Every structure is written in C-alpha cells, then in structure tokens.
UniProtKB/TrEMBL annotation, chain A:
Coiled coil: none
Cellular component terms per the entry's GO annotation: plasma membrane
Membrane protein topology class: Multi-pass membrane protein
Domain ABC transmembrane type-1: 86-276
Record's keyword terms, sorted: Cell membrane, Membrane, Peptide transport, Protein transport, Transmembrane, Transmembrane helix, Transport
UniProt protein name: ABC transporter permease
Transmembrane segments: 25-47, 90-113, 125-146, 215-233, 253-276
Highest classification ranks of the organism: Bacteria, Pseudomonadati, Pseudomonadota, Alphaproteobacteria, Rhodobacterales
Protein family (similarity comment): Belongs to the binding-protein-dependent transport system permease family.
TrEMBL record, chain B:
Protein name per Swiss-Prot or TrEMBL: ABC transporter permease
Chief location bin: membrane
Topological type in the membrane: Multi-pass membrane protein
InterPro entries reported for this sequence: BPD_transp_1_N (IPR045621), MetI-like (IPR000515), MetI-like_sf (IPR035906)
Organism placement in taxonomy: Bacteria, Pseudomonadati, Pseudomonadota, Alphaproteobacteria, Rhodobacterales
Molecular function, one GO term: dipeptide transmembrane transporter activity
Pfam families in UniProt: BPD_transp_1, BPD_transp_1_N
Domain ABC transmembrane type-1 stretches: 98-329
PROSITE patterns documented for this protein: ABC_TM1
Source species of the chain: Meridianimarinicoccus aquatilis
Domain of life of the organism encoding this protein: Bacteria
Length: 289, 341
C-alpha cells in the first residue's frame, strides 16, 4: 500500500517539473500567484504605513523612499493601500468563483446525468443569462439587491454559473453510460454516489482551468463595479475604487495615485490568465499551444 | 431558396423564447429591490397612506403573474417607467443618449477590426515570426487590461504629457456647437452639414475613448482570426488551390480568408457583449454622455427604473445583434443551412 502511490506522485511531480521547465512563463505565473496570496495573508501586518491614516501635509506627494508609490489626496500611503487591498479583491473574486463553481457544478451534474426536463429548463435559464451583456447584468443585479460587497460577490457568481454548469454538463453527459459508471451502479452505488464520486471527478481538471481563467475575470468585474461606485465604499482600500479616485488627479499630472493600483490589478489578472494557460498545459497536453 | 427562407424564419423564431426570458429576468430584478418597492417609488417623504396608494397605482398589490402581464403590457407600449433623476420617461432618456454610445462602440469595433484582422492574418501566414509573437503578447496582455485603467493611462499620456488629445470631457469641446440633429451621430451629422471644423473636433474627442475600447476588443478578434486562418490554411482545398497554380494572393484572400471569416464574425458577437459592458466604464472615464454613464448616474442615485430600463435595453440590443450576425452568415457563406441547430 505504501509504495504504490509513491511512484505515481513522483511522476506527477516529474511532469510538473517538466512542464514548468518547458514553459518558464508558467513558473513566473505561479511565483506571482504566491506573491499575491502572501500579500493577502500577511500584507496588512507588514505594510509600512496605516492604509487609512490621513495626513493633510503630505497630500499628493510623488513616490519617494518613505512613500514608495506616493500619497493620495488625503495623504494616505498608496503602497500600503495597494498591498492591503489585495485581500479584499482576492476575497471577492475567490468567493464569487467558489460559489459559481459549487452551484454550477451541482446544476450541471444534475442536468448532465438525469437529463430530460431538468436539462431543458436549466439550459433555457443559462441561455437567458448569457443573452445579457454580463457586466451590465451584474450592474442590474447589484442595483436590485442593494449596494454591498456581498451582492457584488453574488452578482459575479451568478453571471459565471452558466460557464461551469455547461462544462460539467458536457463532461458528465458523455460519461453517463461509460463502463466504469455502469459498473459502479451495478456494484450497488446510488445514483447520487455515482455522479458525485465516480463521474464528477473527471470534470475537475477542465474545471480547474476554468477557475483560474475565471478568477482574473472576476477580479476585473469586481474592480469595474467598484470603479463605477458600487459595492466597496471609501475609505476601504480596493483597486477599482483607488483607480477611480486617482482618475480625478490624472488630468493634473498626479499619475501615481491611479497608476499603481491599476498596475496591481492588471498584474493580478495577468497572473491568473497565465496560470490558467499553464494549468491547461498540465491537465490537457493535447490542447497545448 | 424557399428552404433558406424557412431557415431564416426559424432562426428569427428562436429569438422569441430568449427575449421572453430576458424580459422575465428584468421583471424579477425590478421586484427584487431591497425593502419595499412601493415605499421606494413613493419617495422619501411618503407616509403609510401614500405608500399604499403607490402600491395600488403600480399594481404591486396584485399577484405576481398578473404583475408580470402588466409589466409586459407596459413594455409593449414602450413604457420603461419614469426616471427619478431626470423626471422623464426612461425610454426618452435612453433614446436620446443611445447615438452617443453607438457612435463610440461602433467606431471602436471598426478600429479594432481594422487592426486585429490584418494582424491575425499576418500572424497566421508568418507563423513563428516576430509578428506572430507580437500578436501573442498583445492577446495575452489585452485580456488582462482593465478598460477603465487603460482609459486613465491614455488620458495621462496623450492629454497631460503630450497634449495631443483634447480634454477628456464628453463628445465635443464646449466651444463648438453640436451639429444639427439628423442621425444623432456627431460624425455623420457634421459631415452631412458640411462642417469640417466640427467634424474634426468630434473626431479628436472620439479617438481616445474609441482607442481604449478598441484595445480591449483587439485580443479576442486577433486570436480568433489567427486560429481561423491557421485552420483554413491547412485545409485540403488550399493545398489543391496551390497545386493548381493559383497566385498566392488569390489563395490567401480569395480562398483562405473568406473561409476564415465565419468564426471571426461569431467572435464579434461575443466581443459585442464585452464591449457593451466595457462601454459603461469607458463612458465614465471620458465623461461621455451615452447610456452607460446615464446608467452609472442612475445606479449611484438608486434610480432603479432607469437602471433596469438600461439593462433591458442592452439585453434586447445584444439579442437582436446576435440575430443579425447569425443571419449575416447567409451572406458570407452560401452553403448556409441552419440544419445544425
């Protein structure tokens, strides 16, 4: 028992090393991802300044040794705010993607395995959601449910559900009558057990790729919503709202207020997109580009 | 020929359930308002009695299915409700501001097609060359760009640093008078009026926001063009055409490109969905007086009727656009049959 899994994990590790060596960009993506996670976890404890402390005498000073990214109109340290904002931005996108992963996964599995009536209704509902320009639908949902951070998460989750549900539906559907599924049923497993533990795991690799690509998109979406004044309220540090605040000063030349949060946002999205491509290489060598 | 008419008819009929679904969702959104919609629509100063009166007036005391029928009835008469912010019917507001948004969106899409399609074709023909690499970098960077940030960056570079662009405030500098209203598109109207000065003033205002949106849409179009061209170039009919001694130009544009157009047009439909969303952000950055900034103002002021009207209008626009794209296949591809659907 002890020595059989060892070679397998070893070869998986070897495969990982092989893919990473083959594609250094993926390695960079994983390193950046680690950096963002670290910023989110310990960022608030290690930043040099209090992200909320205002100081009128220091308003709008350009980047310097004490304030690496300069200060904003209220004299707050932009670097500290950018780093502290990582936690909120990542939380929103991870929570939204997790919600759509779970809901979309369950709905898709139900539609793909049992088919029939459920399948038709769910497909119609997803068609309708996809018929909206998605960012606009998110705006409408937040307007209807109320202007809070939780509702940003729900709105982002809702507009992402169809992607997961479709994917899982397709993956489950083609394996519904597969030999291993029939064998599992014959062995006395209930339908739910067969779907959940025998068929669904096969959909996980493509879903992980989707998750990674989606995370970047969810961050963009959430930052866009807070940019137009939804969800996160000032003075909470968040990338979208910081760019919105900085946009007022860009025409008078104070570029640092908007540039750094915008760059961080871009870098985060870029990281998730690269990671998605890298993960696709890992799980599906055929689609490698 | 009649077979094609049937196919087109079927495709048109397919939009109906989607439209009904869209209306149903926007109905549910208006009914999902936090708190009591009647209390909201009655205003801040309302007492219990006038809230009750508003409830009866808006039909909110009736059962849900009946409310839905009333809602659809209102929609069919073009009634999207009253905007609290402007005090006018939402439909009037939207109709007035739509040309500004369309002018921006369409010029952005045109600009990005003009750049992305040749880039994609070139990258596919010279696969592995520096053009191909440039294309790949652009595509990966392009999908990571937050539109609102690109807009702010472009303003800083071209307005503040270089001074090439006019101040990013609206469609026309205040020293110019808007051209006489014909289509609502300032470029078209000023050209019709023969007013070159206003035309170029409009163009200067338009360049930055259109470039911002175009940068955003460049990536998916270029990627799709490249992929579609690669598929087309590796097909048998291209090999045959080459073997038959047709000039390379004829093979490339007459055969490969025409066949690659189909997936590109499909992508355009998807891109339009993104653009309609990104439009909102770009309009906010450039103080563009379109329906996107109208919706943002309404959102901030909790003007629900205006927001829901906007969402519904966008969705209907998008559904109709996809219909047009599907129908235009019939023009691009003579083999068309909607049999696969």
């Amino acid at each position: 028992m002890t020595d059989t899994p060892a070679p397998q994990s070893n070869s998986a590790f070897a495969h990982l090393v092989y893919v990473l060596r083959d594609n250094p960009v993926t390695l960079i993506a994983f390193a950046l991802f680690a950096f963002f996670v670290l910023s989110a976890v310990i960022g608030p404890y290690v930043v040099p300044h209090d992200p909320l402390a205002t100081n009128a005498t220091l308003a709008l000073t350009p980047p310097s040794w004490t304030h690496w990214f300069g200060t904003d109109s209220l004299g707050r340290d932009v670097f500290s705010r950018v780093i502290v904002a990582t936690r909120l931005d990542l939380t929103i996108s991870v929570a939204a993607v997790a919600l759509s992963f779970v809901i979309g996964g369950v709905l898709g599995a139900v539609a793909g395995y049992w088919g029939g009536w459920w399948d038709i209704v769910l497909n119609r509902v997803f068609d309708t959601i996809m018929a909206f320009p998605l960012f606009v639908l998110a705006m409408g949902i937040v307007a209807a449910l109320g202007n809070t951070v939780e509702n940003i998460i729900y709105a982002t989750a809702i507009i992402n559900i169809p992607f997961y549900a479709r994917l899982v539906r397709a993956e489950v559907n083609i394996r519904r009558e597969a030999g291993f599924a029939q064998a599992a049923r014959l062995a006395g497993n209930s339908h739910i057990r067969v779907v959940a533990f025998h068929i669904f795991p096969n959909a996980l690799p493509p879903m992980m790729v989707q998750v990674s690509l989606n995370l970047g998109w969810a961050i963009l979406n959430a930052a866009g919503l807070s940019f137009i004044g939804l969800g996160v309220r000032p003075p909470t540090p968040e990338w979208g709202i910081m760019v919105a605040e900085g946009a007022n000063y860009i025409v008078s030349g104070q570029w640092w207020v908007a540039l750094f949060p915008g760059l961080w946002l871009m870098l985060a999205v870029f990281t998730f997109n690269l990671m998605g491509d890298g993960l696709r290489d890992l799980v599906d060598p055929r689609r490698r580009t | 020929m009649s077979q094609r008419a049937v196919a087109v008819g079927l495709r048109v009929a397919q939009t109906l359930p989607v439209l009904i679904g869209v209306v149903l969702i926007s109905f549910l959104l208006t009914r999902a308002l936090p708190g009591d919609p009647a209390a909201y629509f009655a205003g801040v100063m309302a007492d219990a009695e006038s809230i009750e009166a508003t409830r009866v007036k808006l039909g909110l005391d009736k059962p849900m299915p009946q409310q839905f029928i009333m809602y659809v009835g209102d929609l069919l008469q073009g009634d999207l409700g009253q905007s609290v912010g402007t005090g006018r019917p939402v439909l009037t507001d939207l109709a007035e501001r739509l040309p500004a948004s369309l002018e921006l969106t369409l010029s952005a899409l045109l600009l990005s097609c003009l750049i992305a399609v040749p880039l994609g074709v070139w990258a596919a023909v010279r696969q592995g060359s520096w053009v191909d690499h440039l294309c790949r970098v652009l595509v990966t960077a392009g999908v990571s760009l937050p539109t609102f940030f690109t807009g702010v960056l472009l303003i800083y570079i071209f307005y503040y640093l270089l001074g090439w662009a006019p101040s990013p405030l609206g469609r026309l500098d205040f020293i110019y008078i808007p051209p006489p209203h014909v289509t609502g598109f300032y470029l078209v109207d000023s050209a019709l009026a023969g007013d070159a000065e206003t035309f170029f003033a409009t163009l200067r205002q338009l360049v930055l926001p259109a470039a911002t949106l175009a940068l955003f849409t460049l990536a998916p179009i270029a990627r799709m063009t490249r992929a579609a061209m690669l598929t087309a170039l590796s097909s048998d009919y291209i090999r045959t055409a080459r073997a038959a001694g047709l000039p390379p130009r004829k093979v490339l544009y007459g055969y490969a490109f025409r066949n690659a157009l189909l997936p590109v047009v499909t992508t355009l439909g998807m891109v339009f969905s993104f653009v309609l969303g990104a439009n909102v952000l770009v309009e906010k950055v450039f103080a563009w007086p379109g329906i996107g900034s109208y919706a943002v103002e309404a959102l901030v002021a909790s003007d629900y009727a205006a927001v829901q009207g906007f969402v519904l209008a966008m969705a209907v626009l998008f559904v109709l656009l996809n219909l047009i794209i599907d129908l235009s296949y019939a023009l691009i591809d003579p083999r068309i049959g909607f049999a696969s659907k």
